Amino acid sequence: MGYVFDYSWIGEYSGVLLKGLWLTVWLILVGATFGVALGIFCAWVRALGPKWARPIVGAYVELIRNTPFLIQLFFIFFGLPSLGVQMGETQAALLAMIINLGAYGCEIVRAGIQATTKGQFEAGWSLGLSRIETFRHVVLIPALQRIWPALSSQIVIVMLGSAVVSQIAAEDISYAADFIQSRTFRAFETYIVATLIYLALAILLRQLLKGVGWVLFPKRSAAR
Amino acid sequence: MMEFSTWDIVRNLLLAARWTIVLSLVAFAGGATVGLVILFLRISKQKAARVFAGGYIELFQGTPLLMQLFLSFFGLSLLGVEVPAWLAASVALILWTASFLAEIWRGCVESIPKGQWEASASLGMGRFEQMRHVILPQALTIAIPPTVGFSVQVVKGTSLTSIIGFTELAKAGQVLTNATFMPFTVYGFVALIYFALCFPLSKSSQFLERKLNVAHRDH
């Protein structure tokens, strides 16, 4: 005996795969944008924000970082409706990704902020910059530049983790694969193709983020 | 119909959490063993071995764990044997864990100054002896905090095995939700149990890191 691999279904189902690919791409682009923004905000609160808010953000970060993404997703999609917060599967998936990346992003950005010495703050103020201006130009941008590689890999990890949103029936790549293999009974081949799509996406996303880093942080030798 | 008290929910979840712990230990022990092999290949003098290990790491870190679980589940059954979910789950988690541990440890080994390699080579040690007596003992101290930190990812990773039908904490949560119609309570407790497992690991990783950093500053 011997198993004969059969990839003849690809043509027929390429539309389904493309649709799934589109949702995964959309989720990570939107999710990463808002997730990084949330991470920066939380890092600001933890490092320089009002004292009362710091432990709240700290608890959020620890809670998210020490529970599985799948459970966060289920809690948002199945648990929150009993509090009257109802949402579709795509919104729930997006929200879970933003909340998840926000917590990791917070820790990463905070590490970058903490590397800023006190003297740099004082130098900023002595130049007549306001607190916010100092934060933006003296603290945040150099910090982001320092931690951009770490943040990029976290974004890729969140993209790969997003494969589980198919479990709440959000129609991403893995959902497309589940659908196709239930029709063709070619489970192994289907998941091979889906896995290769994810691999290509991860490699492309890494390159894209490198490019974004180039655009956001053109040579700033003064940054360090 | 059976009524579930809060205690019934928690008790059943805690019973299921045993399997999360067992699977985590299996994945970690197996992943460390395979990871050590990949590490040796990754820093080998043979180019082919380095390329293979690099490709292995890229493949397992560049694809979703969920897909790896599915491929393990359906791939193993292509061999013509009935594959139980725990076996497919263990295989996938071990290979996945190995790819991360190998890369973490490579960083630690490479942080050992080159002079240590040269000194041990000048004593006539072979490559394996160098690793065994000189490099690994030093790299081990550096490797402990990130390794403990990664164990959190392993515990969280086991939750995905519920999707291929292994009954652990996440799966028990789904079953209990279907039985009680109380997703908020059930998933809340599931999250708390995961937190209770992971938080001490995260904290001890941070603690060890700080402790080791202090040791470094003293030198």
TrEMBL record, chain A:
Ranges for domain ABC transmembrane type-1: 21-209
GO cellular component: ATP-binding cassette (ABC) transporter complex
CDD domains to which the protein is assigned, alphabetical: TM_PBP2 (cd06261)
One term of GO molecular function: transmembrane transporter activity
Entry's Gene Ontology BP terms: amino acid transport
Keyword flag Plastid: no
PROSITE patterns listed in its UniProt record: ABC_TM1
InterPro entries, per database record: AA_ABC_transptr_permease_3TM, ArtM/GltK/GlnP/TcyL/YhdX-like, MetI-like, MetI-like_sf
Domain of life: Bacteria
Statement: the UniProt record of this protein carries the keyword Membrane: yes
Primary localisation category: membrane
Protein topology in the membrane: Multi-pass membrane protein
Localisation per UniProt entry: Cell inner membrane; Cell membrane
TM segment ranges: 20-45, 57-80, 147-170, 190-209
Record's keyword terms, sorted: Cell membrane, Membrane, Transmembrane, Transmembrane helix, Transport
Similarity comment text for this entry: Belongs to the binding-protein-dependent transport system permease family. HisMQ subfamily.
Protein name: Amino acid ABC transporter permease
Originating species: Chenggangzhangella methanolivorans
From TrEMBL, chain B:
Gene3D superfamilies: MetI-like
Chief location category: membrane
Subcellular localization, as worded in the UniProt entry: Cell inner membrane; Cell membrane
GO CC annotations, alphabetized: ATP-binding cassette (ABC) transporter complex
Bilayer topology term: Multi-pass membrane protein
Protein's GO biological process: amino acid transport
Pfam families (UniProt xref): BPD_transp_1 (PF00528)
GO terms for MF: transmembrane transporter activity
Database matches in InterPro entries: AA_ABC_transptr_permease_3TM (IPR010065), ArtM/GltK/GlnP/TcyL/YhdX-like (IPR043429), MetI-like (IPR000515), MetI-like_sf (IPR035906)
Source organism superkingdom: Bacteria
PROSITE patterns assigned: ABC_TM1
Family of this protein: Belongs to the binding-protein-dependent transport system permease family. HisMQ subfamily.
Name used for this protein in its record: Amino acid ABC transporter permease
